Structure formats: C-alpha cells, structure tokens
Amino acid sequence: MAGVPEVKVVVAHQERATLRIGDVFLKIDADSGRTDVEVEAMAIAPVPTPEVLWRQPPVLALAALPGTALGRLGEPSTASSAAWTAVGAAVRKLHDAPLPPWPGRDRAELTSQLDAECEWLVRDGVLPTDLVARNRRVAEAALRPWTPVFTHGDLQITHVFVDGDEITGVIDWSEAGRGDALFDLATLTLGHEERLADVLAGYRADVDLDVIRGWWSARSLLAIRWLVAHGFDPFAPGCEVDVLKSRL
C-alpha cells in the first residue's frame, strides 16, 4: 500500500462528512439540494473557489486550496492584518456581485428560529436566563430590514484560505444565497472581534457596528443546539458561549 494517500476525516456528523485524500476533498452529503447550491455558487462567485473535479451524488470532489485557513474559532489567528484586509476586499466583491437566482432565509424565518432557540436554551437549562435575554436584546439590532446581496451564508474563518497576505479561496458554499451583507462580516469575525477593523479596511463601506454585534449574538444563540447535537463544543474557550458572555 506504499504511496496510497492517507484518508483524513476533516469533519463528520449526522448530516454530512468531508474527507481529504491527498490533494482532493470528498464531500459527502445526502441532501443533493445543498450540493446543487454549492456547485452553482462556486461557479458564479467572483472570488477564488476550489476547482470541482467531479460530482457523483452524494459525493462532490474538490481540489485542495493552497495556503491555510484564516484561523479557527477559539484560537488566535496567526494570519497577518494584510490577509484579513484582503479577505474583507474579497467579501465586498462578492456582495457587489449580481444576486444569485435562488433565495436565502428571510428576516421572519430567522426571528422565529431565534426565539425558538432562546426558549430551548432557557427551558433546558443550557444557559442562564439573563445571558440569553441580554443577547436576544442585542440580536434585535440585526433583525432589521436589509437589502439582499450575494452572501456566502456560512463565512467562518475556517472556510477562508490565505497564503501570506493573499486570499487563495473560499470553501463550503452550501448556505450561499441572498442575505444580509453584515451577517457574512459578523460570521467571519465571530470570536475574533479584534480583527474587525482589518476586515472593514478592505471592505471599504460604512457598517453599523451594532448590527455586527447583533449578528454575533444571534449566530451564537442559533448555533448552540446544533453544535451540541452534532458533537461540537460551544462551551470551549473562545467559542459561542464565550461570545455570548462578552456581551454582558
């Protein structure tokens, strides 16, 4: 078996899994609709994306991107300020692009989901009532009408790759659609608030910081139940629960 590349599990949970074999990523997802969105979004996004090597449902094969991830939630990012600024510029280019032909989640849907998650967090004793209530109030700033733009929809720092000061690509486009530009910016800087100024230097647009803070709270509240159910730890240092505590 000499010369056979090692199979590495990048992420795996009940919904999907990603494996790396040499310089190829295999994404396995039983929901073909998510993969349809991912492939189409990468084809039309005006930013670097992985090359699609082949697709045979439920598997999508993508070429690995050069460089390394911008960072990880809960860990300091070693990427340069210039790299974060370059990412901000790329995000602005995406948001300035023509809208994708499919919709995203609307404000009413997000509000209903957020209220349901807050109720669960309190009812099941996952988080203190005052912590949830405070962040739900902060989140209200994000739930205002917005002008839809082409959003990535899950722009975590692990989904953005850089090499030195340059962005080399963005992965995981299955949540792409029409959405709020500030949701992408907030997702990118979640847990890395100190990098927001660098991102905005590249984004070059006036941004309501209360809305960014609102999305930090909303995204964290929305994510906790899913993370726990899929084997992740939102209570780890620097992760979602700490983001919520930082609002107190």
TrEMBL record:
The domain of life is Bacteria
Tell me where in this chain the Aminoglycoside phosphotransferase domain is found.
45-206
Query: InterPro entries, per this entry?
Result: AGP_Transferase (IPR051678), Aminoglycoside_PTrfase (IPR002575), Kinase-like_dom_sf (IPR011009)
Protein name, as recorded: Phosphotransferase family protein
Question: Membrane-crossing residues?
Answer: none
What organism is the protein native to? Micromonospora parva
